[in-house]
Specification:
It is a single chain. The chain is globular and about 65 Å long. It contains 17 helices and eight strands. Helix 5 links the parallel strand 5 and strand 6. An eight-stranded mixed beta sheet has the order 3-2-1-4-5-6-7-8, with helices on both faces. It has helices at about 25-35, 50-55, 65-70, 85-90, 105-110, 130-140, 160-170, 170-175, 180-195, 200-215, 220-225, 230-245, 250-265, 265-280, 285-295, 295-305, 310-320, and strands spanning about 15-20, 40-45, 60, 75, 100-105, 120-125, 145-150, 175-180. By secondary structure, the chain is of the alpha/beta class.
Amino acid sequence: MIYDEDADLSQLDGKTVAIIGYGSQGHAHALNLRDSGVSVIVGLREQSSSVATAREAGLEVLPVIDAASQGDIVMMLVPDELHRQVWESEVRDGVAEGNMLLFGHGFSIHYGEVEPPSGVDVALIAPKGPGHLVRRQFVDGSGVPALIAIQQDATGNARALALAYAKGIGGTRAGVIETTFKDETETDLFGEQAVLCGGASELVQAGFETLVAAGYDPEMAYFECLHELKLIVDLMYEKGLAGMRFSISNTAEYGDYTRGTRVITADTRENMRKILAEIQSGDFAREWIAENRAGQENFKRMRAEQAGTQIEAIGKGLRSHMDWIKPEF
């Protein structure tokens, strides 16, 4: 693990960092770097709804092409599916030899959507948490762990600059692990699909539907299968699996050992291996790229279908009475 004492923020002295995009990660990187004393500009299209938000935060906002030209370090934080278009039309010509090109996720480099010129440094700084947490932890004096990777070291100083950037956003406060674009991309996609998003969402949905189909109150089913999940995940986050099991009842722990493997079966594990193989072969990337080039018709349909499920309607009503939860997006 790499910590604060291993990174030199002064590597960024006299350099301008251009953050392309101002979404979840973009706003956190820009504000944290600014608060660390780094010169920051934000690149956004003029029609972007984020322009006003970034300016209200006291940041200088420029058109993407101008920000890329002025930045000594250019961080691409637009969504993965926009990288190729934004790179080719607005960023590529502004990245001069000797500059550094950064990514918050390795997808577009690993799968060949972006092909940087040979004379620039190319690196990855990937916080292992959503942008709002990256910002909140920084403001609170801590940080979110991060990964760094060096794809291309044209100047011989890419690693030192990447570590300085990671320090500027608070990553080295919590610890940074050095990896590769390949490993970051493939493990990140697998975690999202098999466990964190795809696996967890489907498990919650299936549990809710099982209880409701058996005649139980939907609100009770929501609390048991979704609401309480955060309490268990928080225990895992703080204490690991063993610590979580120490904190729950003996009844719950016994049910964990004896019934969990009936839900996550050998077939489930085999499907996880197949999902990983699709990521490693590039099949998933090709599917997602094709979906975007076709206008995201299937993606938008699935999003709408999921937003209309019973668990979403029940949850929205219950959360409206929980004044400790922030208003919905």
